[in-house]
User: Fold this.
Amino acid sequence: GWPIAIDANGDGIIDGGGEPPPHMVDLDGDNVMELVQATAAGRIYAFRADGSQLPGFPVTTNMARNVATHLGAPAFASGRIAPPSPTTTSRPAIGDLDRDGYPEIVYANIEGDVYVFRHDGTRAPGFPVRIDPAFSAVALRTKTNHLKTGILGSPVLADLDGDGFLDIVVAAMDQHVYAWDRRGSLLPGWPVKIQDPAPGPGETPVGAESINTPVVADLAGDGHLEVVIETNEVYRASGNANQFFPNEQNNPTSVPGLNTGTVLAAAFAAAGGSGRIYALHHDGNLHPGGPFVAGWPVKLDGLAIDILPLIGPGHNVAVGDMDPSPGLEIAASLTRTWSTSMGTT
Assistant:
């Protein structure tokens, strides 16, 4: 039954392009994996091992908002082309949100909608939800406030509020991180704006997208989860040689008295820029002292991080225990720089 040709948007034409990676998961509880594939055009398929589809699939998301005023056009009116759903680059997240023994599929799209589909293809009550379009209104957009209404990264599932149920965490291109519960209600303290309030002497905070997928982990080992996320903010490079850790610190160069870290810091300060990585408390804006974990955001220099708006800072981080010391470490990178490891305490 494989390979399978996919109708990406339901118009009867075998097409597609830019689809996110598939998932393998047991949707129907028979102890056999199914393959879940979202298309870039707003449909989600669920295939059995023999290539047949599970009942209730594919599922389709709502029509794109900018299509509604064009339904009288000949292509749509004749039925030759189905009105498209918003596109996505986001890989769905899959997990048992309501603890009924069956997983749900959480899907986000470029218009900022988040859907939850049950294992049988029906929509979960309370969904879809949407990010707040007021944060990225056209009237607010400038060269230094280039926000957009949409989600480019993938949703993440984690129990942020400690109630025993998974919550949905997404970073949006309106420079906010959102967290909803399994019923579609925003968690108290969310969304959180991820913007450096004090980027440096003479610099103004920049309005910039987050195109990344958050990482959720208990960084300090205190039983509370934190959310780690990047933005597309670009400021002047910090020039801090200590960020080149650990190997470049003392590596000699051909110039006496200089080491690799010093040279890189000087080069990035002269020709590069500095991005930002944030760690957010589990309770967001309700946390005493504010949503940012102490010591964050971290400034990470790069040589060409503003070369294109979706390339420079847009690298997802990795979190893990890399050494014997307490707490987790965060590995991050930017365009034209070395990977950097940061402690969490």
